[in-house]
Structure formats: structure tokens, C-alpha cells
Amino acid sequence: MTEDDASRDPIDETPATFYEQVGGRATFERLVHEFYRGVATDEVLKPMYPEEDLGPAERRLLMFLEQYWGGPTTYGEERGHPRLRMRHAAFHVNPDARDRWLAHMRTALDLLELPPLHEATLWDYLQRAAHAMVNTFEPTGIGLSPQPGSVSPLPVRAVPPTRD
User: Fold this and answer.
1) What's the rounded Cα separation, in Å, for the pair 15 and 11?
2) N or C: which end of the chain has fewer CB within 10 A?
3) pTM of the predicted model, to two decimals?
4) How far is CA 20 from the centre of its chain?
5) Which of 48, 45, 19 shows the shortest CA–CA distance to 31?
6) CA separation (Å) from 83 to 36, 39, 72, 144?
């Protein structure tokens, strides 16, 4: 053992962030890529992504997760504050969409085979985030929610007031 080895504090060698502890970019790339493989075939989730190619969405989620867990801050530099609820407000995110999102994320997370504490920590966050994105309990509507002034995908009839 050299003098340098003896003077090193083992705590200094422990990765400082969750991002580093789970393997950094490679781990999050695999998680996000596997997740979007599931989304690509999901009849409820796929229409929510404006690009035919899911690549841009995959990149955005990767950047977000990296930054959230202590990795590069590219997401904030390119897109600003995440404002997740605001960014998802235009989409019909009901409990079915949430559960599908979580099912694809669970499959992707299981493939990583993380240590139990890291797996539980990441899964807890993903569940809380998914639940927070629910913005409707209406079962109808796939994809974008109607914007103000747009034509609703479902027929809407005005009901004349009744006279008592």
C-alpha cells in the first residue's frame, strides 16, 4: 500500500449522486430506451407523442432523469424548469394512461437489475411522478386533449335550459 492509498478516505470514492451510484448515463439510456420500446406499441400512450419517431421524446426523458438524479444539467439548459404538470396538461392523462406508463417503466426498470435500494428509490419516484401527471378521470380521449377553440373529437351537444 502506498502512502497515497493510505491517505485516501474511502468515503471520497463513493459516487456522490444517485445518478453515479446506478451507473450514470448508460443506465438511464437503457431505462429510457426500453421504456419507449413499450410505448411504441401502446395504443393509448403512443398517440400522445407528437413526433412519429419517439427519438425526441426519448432524449427529453433521458435528459430530465439525468438532471433529476444528479447527472448533467442539459435538460435545464435546453428546456428550462421541468414544469412537468404544465408540460403534460395538453395530454389526456387518466388513470389508464398512468398505469400503462408505469407498466412500461416497470418492465424497463426490471431489466436494469439494480440493487434493491436503488431500484426501490427510483421506482418510488417514478410512481409518484406518474400519479402527479394524472389530469383527468375521464375514460375517453386518446392523445392530445382539445385545446381552447378547437373542435372536440367527441360530439358535444348543448342542452337547452328547461323551463320550470
Assistant:
1) 9
2) C
3) 0.76
4) 19
5) 19
6) 21, 22, 18, 18
